[in-house]
């Protein structure tokens, strides 16, 4: 450190500088004059470390693309820190080391730069506060400045930035794309109270100058003298079209690969310059000199800059110098309170106590140096400042320019900054790049990669198999229960349909049978006594006359045969239709089962047999019901004597009527000499038909109702039995085949998943190895530079 070289006691320095100085002296890695890392060694190490950090960043980008799901599981705070890797890459890519002067509006950055350099280089003005970024580099040749102007495309971009600024400031997104005249008309009334007033004024000037200027398609550069540079920078109309100003001066204390940058103030009315300031703070600068107004310490813009400086930075106390400007504007009480506030703010933002801070009046620091060297200012503005300084010199500094310079603490800032630039900026830049990349990306990413890799391997080698077996069981059960439920719903729907419509099932058929029977009773041969008589005699070779009641019973038996036959056909048809519908619906449901078991026909063989056998069984039972009910009708019409019916409380109308018909012409029928003619039996026929027409048809209706009431419950009951049998068969054959099918299906899925996990585990292993290798390479590069600096 320069203080040590000159034999100055560190106690003669301000408390903040003494703290830093003592820590460096106590450090094992610090010996005055032995920490310098030459530019050649720095370049080699920088390129090695940059390549390693880029390699780590490439790992991040590849993982982000190929393993987005993995990234989404990483906590958002960690992901936000990953972004800081771009800052380190940007810094290391720059061949020159940059020290940026940053601060709020009118904080005195330009004055501080001049005081730091000990010369009036950058123009002083209350109206223009560094309108354009100014880069200062040391040269051993003639001093000059280089002005770089915006291209036509860059000017168009600047106009878009102005529009975005209006949209953000007034929270009106539509302003960004509004035609210029409408935009101005919309904004002007809103700036009447001062909000956005400067922005509007600069925008209007910009628009006028843009029309007036002949904008180049490509950016132009122009070299000029330092005096001409000051004129151009003071001209705000021209300055807003400048991209940058580069100043080459004779400053041998500043290393050749270091450049100082005087940045535009925070919240300047030029949005391009404002963005540039933030970019340098967050990315480009290798060190910062943060200039604060003592009278208004840390406004919101400055706190925003502080947060950006601190975020993800491990060496903030090494790389940031704090300057409290216009310190003498405070009373002693205010100074004490300001120091306490500054200390609290540093603690709040976790800034280590080893930071460097100076309290100054930058303008007096400059003027005192000029006076000591006997330099008279030529700038009118500076002359005014000198006159004011000369008036204060006697009572504030005892008339001594050296005292003024000492109390400005500019010499302390020069020593600290130059010592840093000459001895530590290169090693600090490399070390902080490694530390920041490790802390912000490599170590957190290694942790999450390793954790996920272990989890994936545990899945592949154990948990995944159990999960696969459980998934197979779950899917099998769910699909089985689903098919079972669908089958049960089908049966219920079919049964409900029969139950609701069973009263209407035989209606048309019964009417047809009734009409057929009534026609037969009214005029058919089977109810004609003479025709029946002839058939009886003709069918019996030894018979000469029918026995008593035989004709009447023959008539009724014929009607019963017709009734039974027709009803049997009717019932069979309807039941068959119902069963056919049932069979078709159920077969459709059973067909679905095939798709569940890779269309294995075995799954429906047993079910189909149960279904086919059930149809024949139901029809046989239905035939039995018809026979049973017809038998009851037959027994009702069997002839019994009067005494028999009397014993049971009376006879029935059919038998009574038929018995009356039997008595008619009975004697004549038994007389073999009597010739039987049709007219002899007309009365008998009439009596038979009357009896049957009046009473038999009533029993036909009762018979039909009995059949209906008996048949459909049997069908419904059989459907219940069929459902039970099918479900039983389902639980055996189908479930077994289903489990095999699901097992194969799940095996494919889990095989694919297992392959994906194994492939991801391999990618993670390669990523981990790359990160570990990059870490090792960076540490080796740091070790090499440390060996070179201590050699």
TrEMBL record:
Q: What is its main location?
A: membrane
Pfam families in UniProt: Dynamin_N
Q: Which SUPFAM superfamilies match?
A: P-loop containing nucleoside triphosphate hydrolases
One cellular component term from this protein's GO annotations in UniProt: membrane
Q: Which residues form the Dynamin N-terminal domain?
A: 99-325
User: Which compartments does it reside in?
Assistant: Membrane
Swiss-Prot/TrEMBL keywords: GTP-binding, Hydrolase, Membrane, Nucleotide-binding
InterPro entries under this entry? Dynamin_N, Mitofusin_fam, P-loop_NTPase
Taxonomically, the superkingdom here is Bacteria
Per UniProt, what is one GO molecular function of this protein?
Answer: GTPase activity
Instruction: Please report the name of this protein according to its UniProt entry.
Output: Dynamin N-terminal domain-containing protein
User: What is the organism of origin for this protein?
Assistant: Novipirellula aureliae
């Amino acid at each position: 450190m320069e203080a040590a070289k000159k034999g100055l006691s560190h106690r003669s320095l301000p408390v903040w500088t003494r703290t830093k100085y003592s820590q460096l002296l106590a450090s094992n890695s610090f010996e005055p004059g032995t920490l310098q890392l030459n530019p050649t060694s720095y370049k080699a190490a920088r390129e090695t470390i940059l390549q390693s950090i880029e390699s780590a960043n490439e790992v991040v980008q590849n993982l982000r693309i190929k393993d987005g799901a993995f990234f989404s599981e990483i906590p958002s705070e960690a992901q936000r820190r990953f972004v800081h890797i771009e800052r380190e890459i940007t810094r290391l890519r720059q061949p020159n080391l940059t020290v940026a002067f940053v601060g709020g509006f009118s904080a005195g950055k330009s004055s501080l730069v001049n005081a730091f350099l000990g010369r009036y280089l950058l123009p002083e003005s209350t109206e223009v506060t560094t309108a354009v970024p100014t880069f200062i580099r040391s040269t051993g040749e003639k001093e000059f400045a280089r002005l770089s102007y915006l291209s036509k495309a860059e000017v168009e971009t600047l106009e878009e930035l102005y529009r975005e600024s209006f949209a953000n400031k007034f929270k009106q997104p539509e302003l960004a794309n509004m035609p210029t005249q409408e935009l101005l008309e919309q904004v002007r009334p809103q700036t009447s109270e001062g909000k956005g007033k400067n922005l509007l004024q600069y925008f209007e000037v910009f628009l006028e100058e843009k029309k007036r200027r002949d904008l180049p398609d490509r950016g132009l550069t122009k070299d000029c003298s330092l005096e001409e540079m000051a004129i151009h920078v003071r001209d705000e109309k021209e300055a807003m079209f400048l991209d940058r100003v580069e100043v080459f001066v004779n400053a041998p204390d500043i290393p050749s690969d270091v450049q100082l940058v005087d940045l535009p103030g925070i919240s300047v009315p030029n949005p391009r310059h404002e963005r540039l300031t933030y970019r340098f703070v967050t990315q480009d600068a290798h060190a910062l000199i943060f200039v604060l107004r003592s009278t208004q310490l840390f406004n919101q813009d400055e706190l925003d800059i502080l947060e950006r400086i601190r975020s993800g930075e491990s060496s903030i106390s090494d790389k940031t110098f704090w300057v409290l400007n216009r310190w003498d504007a405070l009373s002693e009480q205010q100074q004490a309170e300001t120091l306490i506030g500054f200390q609290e703010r540093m603690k709040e933002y976790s800034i280590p106590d080893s930071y460097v801070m100076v309290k100054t009046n930058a303008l007096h620091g400059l003027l005192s140096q000029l006076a000591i060297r006997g330099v008279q200012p030529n700038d009118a503005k500076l002359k005014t400042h000198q006159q004011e300084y000369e008036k204060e010199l006697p009572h504030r500094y005892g008339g001594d320019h050296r005292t003024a310079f000492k109390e400005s603490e500019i010499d302390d800032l020069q020593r600290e900054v130059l010592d840093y630039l000459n001895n530590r900026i290169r090693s600090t830049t490399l070390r902080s790049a490694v530390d920041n990349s490790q802390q912000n990306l490599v170590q957190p990413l290694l942790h999450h990669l390793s954790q996920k890799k272990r989890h994936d391997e545990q899945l592949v080698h154990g948990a995944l198999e159990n999960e696969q077996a459980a998934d197979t069981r779950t899917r099998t059960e769910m699909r089985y229960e689903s098919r079972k439920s669908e089958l049960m719903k089908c049966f219920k729907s079919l049964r409900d349909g029969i139950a609701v419509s069973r009263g209407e099932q035989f209606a048309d058929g019964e009417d047809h049978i009734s009409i057929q029977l009534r026609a037969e009773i009214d005029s058919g041969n089977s109810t004609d006594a003479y025709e029946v008589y002839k058939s009886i005699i003709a069918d019996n070779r030894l018979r000469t006359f029918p026995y008593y009641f035989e004709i009447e019973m023959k008539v009724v038996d014929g009607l019963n045969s017709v009734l039974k036959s027709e009803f049997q056909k009717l019932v069979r048809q309807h039941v068959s239709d119902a069963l056919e519908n049932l069979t078709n619906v159920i077969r459709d449901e059973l067909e679905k089962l095939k798709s569940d078991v890779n269309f294995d026909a075995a799954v429906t063989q047993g079910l189909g047999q149960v279904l086919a056998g059930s149809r024949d069984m139901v029809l046989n039972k239905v035939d039995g019901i018809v026979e049973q009910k017809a038998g009851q009708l037959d027994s009702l019409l069997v002839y019994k004597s009067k005494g028999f019916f009397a014993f049971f409380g009376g006879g029935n109308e059919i038998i009574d009527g038929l018995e009356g018909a039997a008595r008619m012409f009975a004697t004549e029928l038994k007389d073999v000499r009597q010739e039987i003619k049709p007219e002899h039996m007309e009365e008998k026929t009439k009596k038979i038909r009357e009896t049957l027409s009046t009473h038999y048809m009533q029993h036909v209706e009762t018979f039909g109702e009995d059949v209906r009431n008996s048949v459909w419950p049997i069908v419904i009951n059989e459907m219940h039995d069929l459902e039970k049998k099918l479900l039983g068969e389902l639980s055996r054959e189908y479930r077994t085949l289903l489990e095999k099918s699901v097992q194969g299906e799940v095996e494919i899925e889990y095989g694919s998943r297992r392959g994906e996990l194994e492939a991801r585990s391999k990618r993670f292993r390669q990523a981990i190895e790359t990160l570990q290798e990059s870490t090792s390479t960076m540490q080796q590069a740091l070790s090499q530079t440390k060996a070179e600096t201590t050699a």
